[in-house]
Structure formats: structure tokens, C-alpha cells
């Protein structure tokens, strides 16, 4: 309880020094001086980087009277859902085209493993090494090139 009171006192001092009107401060904090009112529904959910703060953490003040914006689509999950591109050749060019795309990347597919583009995360494998149960869904290299024309992802 002592730590919570100190934290509340520090926050209150910071808010009063930053020229915020006292009625706003009084409305923001509850009578117990450590529990914020009007916290958004997502204040305790992890961010896209996995950050979760304790209920009493001073950084939660930024979510008073507004909701914490949470993106449910994590990049690692989106890349995992992307189908493997099956290639007939022993090498491939990864190219996302367009002005905002990335440069061409040469990927060697001689080994019986997936080659991954370091820019886009696209996965490529040689046709003779592809196994649907092990590698998941796939598209052909021609389908990949067609996607890159319109960048339909």
C-alpha cells in the first residue's frame, strides 16, 4: 500500500507540474489514489512486442480516458500463414516489386530445406524437397510472380 501511495503521489506531482487543470486530475484518480478510473478495455492486454505491465505500473497512466490500441495480427503469425513457394529450379529471386518493395534477393535452394527471404519473409523450397505435411500449403513460383505483379498480399 505504501508503494502505491508513493507512486500516486509522484504521478500527481508530475501532473500538477505539467500545468494540467486540477479538475482533470481529480477526475482521473479514484479516492484510493492508486487506481485509475476510465481505463480502456485493452489496458492490460499485451502489445505487439509482448509488453504487459502490472496494474500499479506508472506507465498505465497513458491509457487513462483512452483505450490501448492492440494489433491482433502479429507479424510472426502472418509470416507463418504465408504459403511456401515451390520452385522447379535450384535457385530463385525474391522480389516484392514496386517503389515500396525490396531489392531482388538471390536465394539458393540446393539444400533440402526452406530458403527464406530476409526482407519479406517469403519461404521458398525446391519441388523435389517439398512435403505438404511438413511444409504446409504451397503455391507455384508462377503464382508467386503473378502476386508480385499486383502485390496482392
TrEMBL record:
Domain Zinc finger CHCC-type: 98-124
Residue stretches spanning the membrane: none
Pfam families tied to this protein: zf-CHCC (PF10276)
A biological process term (GO) from this entry: mitochondrial electron transport, NADH to ubiquinone
Secretion signal, residue range per the UniProt entry: none
GO CC annotations, alphabetized: mitochondrion
Residue runs in coiled coils: none
Protein name: Zinc finger CHCC-type domain-containing protein
Originating species: Arion vulgaris
Gene giving rise to this polypeptide: ORF5970
Amino acid at each position: 500500500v505504501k508503494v502505491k501511495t508513493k507512486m500516486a503521489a509522484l504521478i500527481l506531482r508530475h501532473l500538477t507540474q505539467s500545468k494540467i487543470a486540477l479538475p482533470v486530475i481529480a477526475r482521473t484518480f479514484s479516492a484510493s489514489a492508486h487506481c485509475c478510473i476510465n481505463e480502456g478495455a485493452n489496458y492490460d492486454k499485451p502489445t505487439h512486442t509482448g509488453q504487459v505491465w502490472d496494474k500499479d505500473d506508472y506507465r498505465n497512466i497513458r491509457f487513462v480516458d483512452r483505450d490501448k490500441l492492440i494489433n491482433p495480427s502479429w507479424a510472426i503469425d502472418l509470416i507463418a500463414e504465408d504459403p511456401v513457394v515451390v520452385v522447379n529450379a535450384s535457385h530463385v529471386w525474391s522480389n516484392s516489386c514496386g517503389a515500396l518493395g525490396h531489392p531482388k534477393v538471390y536465394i539458393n535452394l540446393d539444400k533440402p530445406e526452406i530458403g527464406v527471404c530476409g526482407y519479406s519473409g517469403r519461404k521458398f523450397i525446391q519441388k523435389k524437397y517439398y512435403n505438404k505435411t511438413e511444409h504446409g500449403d504451397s503455391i507455384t513460383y508462377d503464382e508467386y510472380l503473378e502476386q508480385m505483379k499486383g502485390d496482392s498480399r
